[in-house]
Queue: 2 jobs
Job 1
Amino acid sequence: MIPSYHDLDPCPTGCGASVLWTMTEHGRRMAVDARPDERGNQAVYRDGAGRWRSRSLDGAEARPADPWEATYRPHVATCPKRGSAQPSLPGLPAGRPRTRRRAPARRFPRWTIR
């Protein structure tokens, strides 16, 4: 299944390629290349509501692509500007640890029995 021109957007890193935005099984957005590719590892299909969905074909428990699914490559794997979009600075750690979220404020006071 090939997406229409209206389903495609330009690459967010500015490489000039057209990408198709899909929703993964885990509810995250993923950009895939505009044309199907046999070497791809994402099975892409359109659900009943017209949204593009994708699922991974890698892993021990992954099933092969179904007849209604086409195989695409993630755009992250083919984007020429991916490396220059976020250059790493020498001497800095790879990533920061996540901060802990504060507990939500209580709406009602706690009543104690004396």
Job 2
Amino acid sequence: MKVETAVWAAVIAVILYVSWRVIHPFLEPLFFGLILAYAFYPIHRRLRKFVGGNRESAVLISFTFLVLGGTLTFELAMMSLRLAVSFAGGSIGGDVLNWILTLPLPEDAREFIFNIKAEATTRIADYVSSRAFSIPLYIIQLIVFFLAFYYGLAYSEQIARTIRELLPEEKRELGEEILTSVHKTLSAS
């Protein structure tokens, strides 16, 4: 009986560990999507009067955020790629290292700089390839983020109602006070 219990405990521990490893990368984008939706709620509340409803306003804000964030992310990625290529190609890193080699340095220092110059391209290539393999994970995290952001805006009233319903009876008054003060702070113009 003890062996069977230990085996089941080990199986459950493995399942919990694997589940955590699968879910863990998506908790952060989910959290930040909901936090950002909470921060954009005042804009959403004002905008929905002009565009016709919750979903339309949430789509407009999400799409605007996606375009601006996507453009900024793409530009930063391209700048990083150009910097890595120019460093590996020798125009930045090679010129600096060649200039350092023209200085009167001890032989150990010159050998160290030659090693850096030889390994720089390999290390940059390893770094870029490791980032390239994580692109699908980033895309999935981005999708989770935008879904949380959109649904956090589109269903904000239902989410707030559910949170109020989940407050424990013995602490309901304190919870209502906290939620009211947060709402007043967020709604302040």
